[in-house]
């Protein structure tokens, strides 16, 4: 059930949602009803009703805790109930497993009778044990209910302890910071002033967006001071996450009317809005609205600003990208993204805060200082906080190394660090409950770990963190979660893919510090690592992340320490790791970076009946045990980084709930047609050992969205036609259903498939065909209106270019061309071609020429130029006529220059021409030029 359509687990409620779903299943499914005793059914019904009420209260407490810290008594009750949910789920899982596995007999004959008798005795003993556990758990639930009433927990959820207390505004230091003490602010300030001061008479709203602690308030205040005198009136107001809009309006009125006597002391929102509108109607004003958290707050605040033509300006700062876009002037999209400080500015700020200047840093502290600055990631708040912390330490390298090692683990605490964490916590507390869970989960990854989007989303799915809305599937919904964390500047973008979607991210060390402390505090994640002192584990471990080699001293304290672990991440394998059999409750197992992993470690994996996710990364040959077929709840099997694994056990076909099977060239399993839940299958090998029936069964996988296939049936194989017909039939069926991504690899021609594919796979979005060169583009391919990604080897001629250019939504094209005909060695991309293409990688002995208006959205171009044929083939008078200057959206250019048989002066002229063309582009890309075969160049006076 976990990972279906609703959230099954969360940091706020523990396993409560998953547990309630299972209790409802026990009471609703006939297969369980017939096997449960009447008394047990009553107990299950009681648990469902009582825990349902507690779950609702836990959700309210989570929201209350985000607004203000809970009192210790309420926090203790919440923690105990949350822990109790895990214990009850473990008991229910064991009970449901027994009911599922219960069979009517043990075979025939005397042996069958004996086995049947033994099984019934074991079952009776086990059922007695389960009944006793349920009674004990019922007593715990009853006691938790009594405490709830005794301590008035419901009242605490309604009015948290901090309610009514007005905290000190932690932005005050930024408002009164003097320019002389600031670093790196001049450039952003001048850019923001430029955006505001373009002479436009209409009201202009500019949004400044960036992570917490990046200096948005400081920047806005510097601009406010710099240009404030140019306006008739001005106001600077700071918002909270739940702002008192009436108080905001009163503050604005008092600031803009500073020389007038009548100050508004009361009035409803409508009166305040009207008063502001009337006063500002004919004035040139400057308003700064600092730290806005929602579009709803902006919708109300902007009502006070009537449209005029006096050149008024509004600056909005926010941590959230969507809020920034909502606030900025819609016709201009004026969003200024504040960047982190450069390395030089970061060091300047750090050393200035501690020593007064960089040249006063003691020699023994230089290296560790640079490392500390690097960990701060250009975040001014972090740099200042670390500098303030280090002023309390002695000038010894050992002391500073301890501080450096504590960043990202939250061990070093003082008032400045607490202050910084409270500022960063505002972003965390503003998250919806499901996103708080997903962010906390990222504390399982080591510092600086690059996390790929799809990998992270699959982990969230397996954990049961994702709830599907509308028509989206689990992966699409998970990507929405991922994008929202980026939008809120809580995770950092590392890399983009061809279509602009974020491909990978990392967690800033200071955010990691925050979420590690919160995850440990809530007993959501337990982390063990060689890099720091490990806090003493309290209570039961639910999610365990191990990044160390000496884990035996940490993980083998007792067998019960890991008996309740639901997720296990091992980043470095140790032979002293506890056996998998100790992890009975495991749902997620990720063996990452395990060069010495032995297959024997996996021999008991078939007994982990709750396992949903299995990922193995190992450089040596790993053999999966046949018992893996017992994992009936397994959804995701990721063997992409097991390069030595080529065979899957036959029992793999028994995994009826498996959705993702990802491996590096494993043989197509026989019986694959049984795996009807499969949505992704790659990369599987089809060779002469593959049963034809297995290839035919692939066509029945109607839910399959992604397929990778390595075809190794040679043209000389006697059964080739049978295999070929089966492949054509299966891909035809998949193309007519849900197939979105297809990778075909073969050293032999697949023209038999590409020429006869019917009906065309109209849903196809990504297509990669590698290993052999197509003669031409198949006619049916031109009908792929949804194709965004194409990677093929083909003999490109002008007709091919024109066909590819007509694909309506193509964004990525990688192609290899080897045109033997000299007449086809210069290909022209004309005006209007490739309207949506963003990335082009063109390899081959053919030159490209771009006409004006070609590829209007192209951002990245990589291609090669064969110098000695470029003039003759393209008929150019100058290399500049390749038309690179026409690619107005270009941001990245890589050119491979083949110098063989070319004159030195021609190569130099070509390089110069490329640089001139690039200098004319608006995005000022820096070209990367690689020269090959320079030794084979001709002297300037040599004969061609």
Structure description:
InterPro entries: Apaf_helical (IPR042197), Disease_R_plants (IPR044974), LRR_dom_sf (IPR032675), LRR_R13L4/SHOC2-like (IPR055414), NB-ARC (IPR002182), P-loop_NTPase (IPR027417), RX-like_CC (IPR038005), Rx_N (IPR041118). GO terms for molecular function: ADP binding. Pfam families: LRR_14 (PF23598), NB-ARC (PF00931), Rx_N (PF18052), WHD_DRP (PF23559). The chain folds into seven domains: 143 residues, no CATH class; 153 residues, Rossmann fold (3-Layer(aba) Sandwich), CATH 3.40.50; 65 residues, no CATH class; 104 residues, Orthogonal Bundle (Arc Repressor Mutant, subunit A); 127 residues; 127 residues, no CATH class; 145 residues. Helix 8 packs across helix 9. Helix 28 links the parallel strand 25 and strand 26. It has a 17-stranded parallel β-sheet. The chain has 29 helices and 27 strands. It is an alpha/beta fold and 944 residues long. Helices cover 38% and strands 16% of the residues. It starts with 15 loop residues before the first helix and ends in a 12-residue tail after the last strand.
Class inferred from helices and paired strands = alpha/beta
Mean pLDDT: 84
Shape: globular
Major sheet description: 17 strands, parallel
The CATH architecture assignment of the largest domain turns out to be 3-Layer(aba) Sandwich
* Tally of distinct domains: 7
Uncertain parts: 103-125
How is the topology of this model organized?
Layout: H1 16-28, H2 30-33, H3 38-67, H4 72-101, H5 109-150, H6 153-158, H7 172-175, H8 186-196, E1 204-209, H9 216-227, E2 233-238, H10 245-256, H11 269-280, E3 285-290, H12 295-301, E4 313-318, H13 321-327, E5 335-337, H14 343-355, H15 366-376, H16 380-390, H17 397-406, H18 415-429, H19 433-441, E6 451-452, H20 453-463, H21 474-487, E7 492-496, E8 502-506, H22 509-521, E9 526-529, E10 543-547, H23 552-555, E11 567-570, E12 588-591, E13 613-618, E14 636-642, E15 660-667, E16 680-686, H24 692-698, E17 706-711, H25 720-735, E18 741-745, H26 751-754, E19 766-774, E20 789-794, H27 798-805, E21 812-817, E22 826-829, E23 839-844, E24 847-850, E25 860-866, H28 867-874, E26 892-898, H29 904-919, E27 928-932
Parallel strand pairs: 1-4, 1-5, 2-3, 3-4, 9-10, 10-11, 11-12, 12-13, 13-14, 14-15, 15-16, 16-17, 17-18, 18-19, 19-20, 20-21, 21-23, 22-24, 23-25, 25-26, 26-27
Antiparallel strand pairs: 6-8, 7-8
